[in-house]
Amino acid sequence: MTPHTRSLHSVPAPAVPEPRPELVGATGQGPDPAPLGDPALLEAFWRYERALIGNDVPDLDALFAPGGRTLRADAGTVLVGHDHIAAFRAGRGGVPHRQLTRVHLRALADGVALLVAESVRADGGTGVQTQVWERGDGGWRVSAAHVSTVPAAAFAPVDGAEVDPTIWRVPPGPAPLRPGAPGGPLTGARVAVKDLFAVAGERIGAGNPTWADAAPTETADAAAVRALVQAGADVVGIAHTDELAFSLAGENVHYGAPPNPAAPGRITGGSTSGPAAAVAAGVADVGLGTDTAGSIRVPASYCGLYGLRTTHDAVSRDGLVGLAPSFDTVGVLTRDAATLSRAAGALLPPAAVVPTETIVVVDELMGLAEPDARLATEAALRALALRAGARVAAADLDPELLASWFAAFRTVQQAQAWATHRSFVRGHGDRLDAAVAARFRAGAEVDEELRESATEVLAAARDALVGALPDGVLLALPSTSSAAPPVGAKAAVVESTRAATLRLTCLASLAGLPQLSIPAARVGTLPLGLGLVGGPGADRSLLALLTQEAR
């Protein structure tokens, strides 16, 4: 540990300025004290944003540079000079309430910065503010600004998605498979169930037709299915999964690749691929899935959805075909934050909501993402931190230690997967996708000594991560290392993308922690998730970030 840093679990109270924590180990350089840009500039920008929403004309005037060369433009005209801008603003009134989604920041010169902020209004319309900020004797002020807005686009379900055989093993019919109880918070919501959960009267297919043919008809619903039904949701169909949930691609060799409406021509990600496609296509409102190594977070990121991987064992796995029991969790996918909160709320036990005070950024983790994915994540995180009133603190993580954690996770996951499904794989390995079969075979090669050694590494990693994330502290990272790869990409590309993403997703998995994926980042026109990891049981605190008013 370097002398000027401190362990994250001992981060001081928010009143102490600019904490410089580290997770574990040290890189030797120390963390960046301002990982997302000059805090004074971001504070001035947030002051401007609040003044704009509140129509605080004096504060807005103070934040625009004085003189006759200051510019303010929109789609209709350009105002030149501080006095003309102030007169326009005084006669205009306030602007509609909006929520920041991304804040892009580029330094142009010493004391000069370009800031581009994206936002969404309550009516679904979007806007972009482009501002040049200059630092002078009075602090940071806007010297030029341009504002543009776009009306909300109507959302329409994708034609044919309700019967698409690449999405559904049991497609929606005239009546729900399981109608919801009346009067619950999810009344009217349609649920696509991942083909690992028991639904009474149906078989579990587990992504493999040979498995499905031999499976018995279920006599009772899985616990998670039952909880959503009791909350009022209708189970409308059973959607495909990658084979035995042992993939992150979403391309099932038996059923095909489900479409990704948010990124046409790109994969959905797996293994909760079918539910993700159904929700993104608008033919389901909730996707009920599982997450062992990223199977909620990856499709959420690729398909532009909200996703929550719950704390390990917080939601019952009764009635579920598992993969690696030390890491398997139940999770949900939705198109909007409010539905995610209601769906997850129906599954989770009661827990106190703790406001987020600190969001930690680890350069070694951000560096695992492709450069454009990193920039997109940082833009989304700036907006979230400003809305939440949370400070962003940098931290260190020794890359070699991270590599050892990942290797241990893969070893234990593969060993447990083999222990769970070795009977089926031994008898029907030729009926599995070659890549999936290879993962099972790798698990068969793990001997007891190696498994015990890896388990010890994971125990230490879990202690470090849990200790690093006390109440009110979250870890931010990209949900995936890149936007969704193209359908039919070469196997080497798919595997390299999978390996890079697993190094990000394994942290929450190995420690049994909840992780939220927010569809706030964007690489070109492709969606990308902003990931937020909390301590054990912080699920409801993570969800509160989605619905709280800006501070």
UniProtKB/TrEMBL annotation:
Residues 1-36 are annotated as: Disordered. SUPFAM superfamilies: Amidase signature (AS) enzymes (SSF75304), NTF2-like (SSF54427). Pfam families: Amidase (PF01425), AtzH-like (PF11533). InterPro entries: Amidase_dom, AS_sf, AtzH-like, NTF2-like_dom_sf. Residues 180-543 form the Amidase domain. This is DUF3225 domain-containing protein.
